[in-house]
What does this fold into?
Amino acid sequence: MQKIAIVGLGFMGTMHAQIYAQLRDARLVAVVDNQRAKAKRDLVKLGIEAAVFGTLEEMLQSCEVDVVDVCLPTDLHATFALKAIAAKKHVFCEKPLTLTKEEGRKIAAAAKKTGVFFQVGQCMRFWPEYMAFEAFVKSLKAGKLLSLSMQRRSGLPMHSVDHWILKEARSGGAALDLHIHDTDYVHHLLGKPDAVTSRASRGVSGWDHIFTTYHFKNVAVTAEGGWNYPKKWGFQMAFQAVFERGAVEFDSGASPTLTVTIGDGNKQSLPYTNPGAGESSTGVGNLSSLGGYYNELATFLSCLQRRRAPKIATADQASESLATTLSEIRSAATGRTVKL
It folds into this structure.
C-alpha cells in the first residue's frame, strides 16, 4: 500500500484524489494546499479523509508518505518536485514538467541521483484510444503510416485558481500547457523530430493557438493546439492518420470515438481496452470515465509495487518533449524552422 500526498488540491489534484480512492494499492493520507479551509471542504465533498497541511515542509515533518503528487501551477513544479526528491519521496508530477529545459534536466538528474521513481502526467501515452492507435501502427494491418494530423482545441479555460493558467509566465500559454500533449505523443509514437516549423497566434495567455509541422523523413506529421475558442465552445481532441492501405480517425466528440477503414472495407469502430480500469469499450462515452488519468496513476503505482522504475512518461522523456515544444514556440516567434 502506497501512502500518497497531493500537493495542490485544485482541478487536477481533485481528479487525482478521486482516482487514488479507486486504486487498491493507494491511500491518500495528506494534502498540501495554502487554502487549507477550502481543501478540507473539498475533501469532505469527495468523501475522502486525509490530513491537510499548509506547506510541504510541515507535511513531510508530520506525515509519513511514499509518494508526493505535484498538482501545482507549472511555474512551481520544479521547486516542489526537487524538495520531494530531496526528501527521498517518489514523485508524480503534472505536465508540463517545468517551464524551462534547464529545470527539466535538473529534475531528471536529481531523481536519478537519489534513486526515486519519477513519472510525469503526459496522459496521452496512457489514453485508451491513443494506446489502441499506437498498437495499430505497430501491427502494420494497414501498412506503414504515411501521415498523421492531430488537433487539441478548447474554449478559454476558466477552471484554474486565480486563472493562473491564463498567465504566460506561469503556464506558458496554450502552446506549452495544452499542445504539449500532442508533441509528447509524437515523441512517444515516432521519436524525436529532426526539426519543427510552427506558426501561432497570440492572445490573453501568450501563444493561444499553435500549428506545427514536425519534420520526419518517412512520415508527414502536423499538430495544432489552441484554447482561444469562446468560453462555452467546449473541448475536442482528435487525429486523422493515413496508412498505405487504410485510415484511422479519432474524435473525442464522436460516437464511436475511434474508427478504422482498411482497403475497400467500410469504416468501422476500432475496439480498444482501458487497461487501468479493466473495462472494454468500443469508444462510446469513454471520455466520461477518467481514461488516461486513471491509467497513468495505476501504472505508476504498479511500478512502485513491483519496485521497477517507470518506462513511460519519465522525467527524461518529459524533458525531451518539453524541449521540442519550446523549440516550436521559438519557431513561431521567429518565423523560422528550428532544428532539434
In short: The first strand starts at residue 2 and ends at 7.
